[in-house]
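JOB MANIFEST
job_type = single_chain_structure
chain_count = 1
residues = 400
[input]
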Amino acid sequence: MGWRPLLEGDDAGRALAAVRAITDDLARIDPEGPGFNAGHASRAVLGAHLARTGDAEAGDGAVDALEQALDSLDRAPRPWVLDGVAGVAWTAAHLADLVDIDEETFAELDRLIGGVLAIEPWTHEWEYVLGLTGLAVYALERPGAPGDALLAQAVHHLAALAERQADTITWRSPPTLLRGDAARQQNPDGYYNVGLAHGVLGAIMLLAEATSRGVPGAAELLPGAVSWLEAQDSGSPARRFPLMIARGLAEHGAQRDGWCYGDQAAAAALVRAGQAMARPAWIEHGLSAAREVARREPTARLDAAFCHGTLGRAHMFNRLAQATGDDELAEAARHWYRRTLDQRAEGAGVGGFVFPEETSEPASILTGSTGIALGLLAAASPVEPGWDRAFLCALPLRSG
């Protein structure tokens, strides 16, 4: 089955009007460097998805934005996905249907990413935002043998860094990633991060994709990682999975559901792993957690962004629904799309959306209006939102 828009009629009209307003406002804001999150690459991704819905002018803009991203790649501050080389490289691979990029350019991008992946032993973080898991999204978008080789190297590093006990596998985060001196002092040997942005869910998602692609070693790691995750399920309808496990922190942490952390992200990881290894029980476990999120109200006020806001909730429910055919989750997605649109104040911010200054880049995909535009476009058009492959949450669509 193909992608189906969940919003129709007035809801779809409101969504597309918001997309147009965001696009108009972004045209007046200079991108922040070459990067994927808020730079030229982010504009290329948005333009490409507008082009795939029939906007030829946006397609021309996407080509120009990608050229600017590639031309300024030496300004990328680091190799990682959101603001570094990997995100620009991913964008180039993602736009290969719109832009004629020569193999010499891809060979150079492979060399840049491969040079980082060749570090042995791995000395950087293993997580998505600042390390290995995010770096490997380029390998997932790069087809054929070049991508497979890069992905195999990432899986190799995850295997070497894995912490094994009985039939479980997980990854420990260093204390330097905890907030506050007290927390770091209480956890000198590190802690377990259960998020997608910074933790084990990201590794599970990467391994599931690598397993589906037949990369050696991935299928050997994935069952143990899922067993570890399932063991963290509290069974409480109020909060199933912890955000992190560390001394001095509440066992199951604060409630947060969205792309970055929480029960929705855990649900998506279980469903994707179940798809990759044909394990219906994992899929049903994930769905049970997602349905409980759909039935409860968040404990904190949410902004509209993708990372952990109302749009992120809507998009994760949408992906889960389209992967499984679950009508309750589809209706939950519609609800959270409407909640996103209700936050729009015409003439304010970027396209009518305003964000907390301390936690947002207003023009970004992750925490700003570019991500809202991409998410609303996915809600109101029949074009699958392949941009979310960069965020490791593009669950394959249900077949039949």
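[summary]
The chain has 16 helices and four strands.
The chain has a mean pLDDT of 95.
exit_status = 0
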